[in-house]
Design brief:
Blueprint: E1 4-7, E2 30-33, E3 40-42, H1 43-46, E4 56-59, E5 68-79, E6 86-94, E7 99-102, E8 112-115, E9 118-125, E10 165-168, E11 173-176, H2 181-195, E12 203-204, H3 210-274, H4 276-284
InterPro entries: C1-like_sf (IPR046349), DC1 (IPR004146), PKC_DAG/PE (IPR002219)
Organism: Corchorus olitorius
Coiled coil: 223-257
Length: 287
């Protein structure tokens, strides 16, 4: 694994954040690979979206050699390597290999849970649910890509129709995964503790401000250095600007005098042509 450097490097427009798959541009700080420079990670995406109280939670999965990191959402859907369905919210990813897995597809994730928002158990169910498709508005061919009427009964917000949800069939109560994650996390942590025989869960602490503060300190140092170089240059520039102003003023004065004398010469020559006799007689006056 290579170290990452926090930078404002302008990345190619075709590059995306390895975590959320969102675009990387020159207006956002990013972490980039110190070795090959082709790996990018948004600063916000480097923060732990899910923690255990001991740091940024990493989950091990027997089907992949690297630890998987939890992410809350992605800008561009990927495919879960377990179920083959789209991954959009609440998933684990190996950012090095682009291996994605729904949280509920992890072997330790429970199929049935209880949650404080509902009296009855909730069971993991594929979405959309059958009763949601029986509404009169779906008598025509159903296209879920353009539908906005799928809600979570916990947060009462629109949910992703393609994400499986926890469901009570008796009361038709639907809870999206992000709203019941507090019930899923203990099972995942417990599985890690059991697998490692009571060793500490694999975590990596994220120092939220240390990297930013270090980067800002470097910027402050560079700013101070440039200001120190700028001051004598400003004094020299001011002196040169005064000299330049004086030279420009002298040029204006000389050009004005040149114009006046040139105009006088033209008038004098014209006068000689118009009065040649007077000039000649004047020149013959005895002394």
């Amino acid at each position: 694994m290579h170290p990452l450097i926090l930078t404002a490097l302008q990345a190619p427009a075709t590059m995306n954040c390895a975590a959320c798959l969102g675009p990387v541009d020159q207006f956002r700080l990013v972490y980039t690979c110190a070795v090959n420079g082709r790996f990018f990670l948004h600063v916000d995406c480097a923060k732990p979206a899910l923690t255990t109280g001991r740091g940024h939670l990493l989950i091990n999965f027997e089907g992949h050699p690297h630890p998987l990191t939890f992410f809350d959402k992605t800008h561009s859907p990927a495919l879960c390597k377990i179920c083959g369905e789209a991954v959009r919210n609440c998933f684990f990813r190996c950012v090095a290999c682009y291996f994605d897995m729904h949280l509920y597809c992890h072997p330790s994730a429970p199929n049935t849970i209880t949650h404080k928002s509902h009296l009855h158990p909730l069971t993991l169910t594929t979405s959309p649910l059958d009763f949601e498709l029986l509404s009169p508005q779906y008598l025509e061919p159903y296209d879920p890509w353009y539908d906005d009427d799928f809600y979570c009964d916990v947060c009462e917000q629109k949910r992703d129709v393609f994400e499986s949800a926890y469901y009570c069939a008796e009361f038709k109560f639907i809870a999206e995964v992000r709203c019941v994650i507090s019930e899923l996390l203990p099972s995942l942590i417990a599985s890690e503790d059991h697998r490692t025989k009571d060793k500490q869960v694999i975590t990596s602490t994220y120092e939220d401000n240390s990297a930013l503060e270090a980067f800002i300190a470097v910027l402050d140092k560079n700013i101070a250095s440039l200001k120190a170089k700028k001051k004598p240059l400003e004094l020299k520039f001011e002196k040169l600007r005064n000299q330049l102003s004086q030279i420009e003023w002298n040029i204006v004065e000389l050009e004005r005098d040149r114009f006046l004398w040139n105009n006088y010469q033209l008038c004098h020559n014209l006068k000689e042509k118009e009065n040649p006799t007077e000039e000649a007689s004047t020149s013959q006056v005895p002394q």
